[in-house]
């Protein structure tokens, strides 16, 4: 098998690169910063984002985008708001090759409101896009803990390509033909995890969190179906599965952001202080904008967007949710 490139040396890109290399696949981890790439290559670990996880022999590091020319596939793990520019760079570096690209980032683009596979088709139309999503904390995957995810593509050949390469004794991808549904689940759950974190930070208890997960899932389904996703995808690993994981653990950066806000932190100040990305913060705006355009009610996500953008305080947003007109649960 030829080598794979993993683009994006944050915690998830590094965990995926380690997973692939551990399984004996020749893997190159691309980092945008030359200095950091050199540090990782020397230290044989990514101390900044995934400290304590040793790089297997089959893992090399580069900061040169054109090294992608020698790879048979790309796992793209750059944060959603930076995806467009880097996808353009990789297309240029490969002269528009028809390469398999698995999108691993979870977010909607601000401005265009586009999911990542749309951004890929606009920036690199020749690429063969797939989506890798589902409940998976980088630290768990890097430690070899059992994980199951969704690998989605409309193209059977692409599903086979990635299933064959991604599956390891501890990492189990399930195939789906619904990349849109797989992507939307991952993007929306990040926003809902912020709401759950806020509830926990406010000390509201487990009942409130369960209510937010269930009503949040109703929002996720409503939005996904309005966008054209399949119901079974939304109820699967990349939808409900990832929602449950992310809404229940301070290991989640989105949940932790919510907790900090619930405890009184200013969202913008907290976000500036973090080296890691909490995608839900940037996705809340485009998500609710798109939902409004579709006539789709998403009150929890609307509340999160208003708090993140500073249009509402936490108590005002919570009051708004609790005082909505009584309605049927459906
Ligand atoms: N960490 C996880 O457990 C996990 C799991 C599944 C999916 N994801 C998704 O993977 C994506 C990447 O997240 P992560 O957790 O690896 O990141 P991270 O928070 O661990 O690190 C952020 C990374 O983004 C890079 N970055 C920041 N701004 C950038 C820019 N303008 N251009 C290019 N790179 C930039 C940083 O250098 C760093 O490598 C996100 O969409 C996230 O939702 C993460
Ligand atoms: O840390 P978070 O909130 O970005 O969540 C990480 C993964 O998406 C969980 O599946």
Tell me about this structure.
This protein is of the alpha/beta class and 330 residues long. It folds into 2 domains: 4-177, NAD(P)-binding Rossmann-like Domain (Rossmann fold), CATH 3.40.50; 181-323, N-(1-d-carboxylethyl)-l-norvaline Dehydrogenase, domain 2. Helix content is 53%, strand content 12%. The protein contains 16 helices and 8 strands. It has helices spanning 11-22, 34-43, 47-50, 80-93, 116-123, 138-142, 156-166, 179-201, 205-227, 231-234, 237-246, 253-262, 267-273, 279-294, 299-308, 314-322; strands spanning 3-7, 27-30, 59-62, 71-76, 100-103, 128-133, 147-152, 171-176. The chain has an 8-stranded mixed β-sheet, sandwiched between helices. Helix 8 (179-201) runs parallel beside helix 12 (253-262). The model has no long low-confidence stretch (mean pLDDT 97). Bound molecules: nicotinamide-adenine-dinucleotide and SN-glycerol-3-phosphate. Nicotinamide-adenine-dinucleotide (NAD) binds next to helix 1 and helix 4.
């Amino acid at each position: 098998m030829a080598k794979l490139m993993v683009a994006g040396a944050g915690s998830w890109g590094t965990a995926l690169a380690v997973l692939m290399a551990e399984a004996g696949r020749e893997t190159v981890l691309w980092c945008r910063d030359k200095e950091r790439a050199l540090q990782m290559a020397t230290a044989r670990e990514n101390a900044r984002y995934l400290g304590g996880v040793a790089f297997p022999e089959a893992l090399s590091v580069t900061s040169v985008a054109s090294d992608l020319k020698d790879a048979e596939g790309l796992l793209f793990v750059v944060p959603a708001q930076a995806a467009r520019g880097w996808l353009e760079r990789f297309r240029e570096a490969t002269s528009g090759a028809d390469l398999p690209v698995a999108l691993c980032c979870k977010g909607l683009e601000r401005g265009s409101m586009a999911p990542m596979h749309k951004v890929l088709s606009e920036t690199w139309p020749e690429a063969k896009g797939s989506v890798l999503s589902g409940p998976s904390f980088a630290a768990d995957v890097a430690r070899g803990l059992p994980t199951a995810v969704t690998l989605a593509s409309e193209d059977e050949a692409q599903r086979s390509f990635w299933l064959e390469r991604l599956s390891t004794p501890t990492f189990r991808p399930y195939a789906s033909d619904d990349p849109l549904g797989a992507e939307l689940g991952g993007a929306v759950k990040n926003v809902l995890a912020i709401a759950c974190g806020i509830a926990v930070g406010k000390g509201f208890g487990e009942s409130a969190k369960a209510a937010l997960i269930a009503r949040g899932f109703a929002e996720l389904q409503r939005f996904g179906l309005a966008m054209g996703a399949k119901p079974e995808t939304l109820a699967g690993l990349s939808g409900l599965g990832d929602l449950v994981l992310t809404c229940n653990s301070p290991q989640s950066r989105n949940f932790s952001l919510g907790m900090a806000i619930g405890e009184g932190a200013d969202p913008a100040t907290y976000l500036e202080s973090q080296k890691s990305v909490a995608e839900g913060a940037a996705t809340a705006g485009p998500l609710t904008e798109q939902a409004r355009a579709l006539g789709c009610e998403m009150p929890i996500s609307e509340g999160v967007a208003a708090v993140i953008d500073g249009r509402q305080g936490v108590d005002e947003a919570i009051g708004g949710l609790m005082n909505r007109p009584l309605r049927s649960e459906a």
